[in-house]
Amino acid sequence: MIRVLVADDEPLIRAGIRMILTSADDIDVVAEARNGREAVETARSTAVDVALLDIQMPELDGLTALAEIGRTAPQVRVLILTTFGERENVLRALGHGGAGFLLKDSAPQELIHAVRAAAAGNAYLSPAATRHVVDTLASPAATARGEEARRRLSALTERELQVLALLGEGLSNADAGARLHMSEATVKTYVSRILTKLDCDNRVQAALLARDAGLEPAGG
């Protein structure tokens, strides 16, 4: 079972998330927290695999709590939940070691998928969050980022670009493998090569780079 901590200052939101997650037969919500400080303390004292943190909470916000959990309970994988998808928050979450970032209006199945991905050691970025981030980047700085991203992606082979494009859509290794008719293990090998070539710490950073470059799956 994947043991989950849900942290949000709104009881109805916590109840809704609990209902969604416990509908999956491999996920158990073992703890809840009403603020960031409680989330950190619970992550330290409870056997938890994945923590879902609201980005806006009293006492400690989600990003600060994420950093504290990373320092004091590094075994816990943290997903950030928010109604906002600004790139700055996404990058801060990744910089603090977050396992992913998704919007509160994501589909229930996406929430379950994100928890499973985080528990498996994969990073997850909601496609909706990614699109929202990209849509807000119509600026000269965004153009410069796009040019730099395309330059970095030029080091990849055609097959690596195909795999990276699917990461940019938020697909897991298994889903990407099914799309490309490859085994999950083969996709994992490609992802490792991609991260090395792009000098990215995790797959979400690589996915953002793919989005900056305008990379889309073939036929997408």
From TrEMBL:
Residue ranges annotated for the Response regulatory domain, each copy included: 3-119
Domain HTH luxR-type, residue spans: 149-214
Record bears the keyword Lipid biosynthesis: no
Transcription keyword on record: yes
Keywords tagged on the record: DNA-binding, Phosphoprotein, Transcription, Transcription regulation
Recorded coiled-coil stretches: none
Modification type 4-aspartylphosphate: residues: D54
InterPro entries: CheY-like_superfamily, NreC/VraR/RcsB-like_REC, Sig_transdc_resp-reg_C-effctor, Sig_transdc_resp-reg_receiver, Tscrpt_reg_LuxR_C, WalR-like
Pfam family, one: GerE
Stated name of the protein: Response regulator
Native source organism of the sequence: Streptomyces cellulosae
Source species taxonomy: Bacteria, Bacillati, Actinomycetota, Actinomycetes, Kitasatosporales
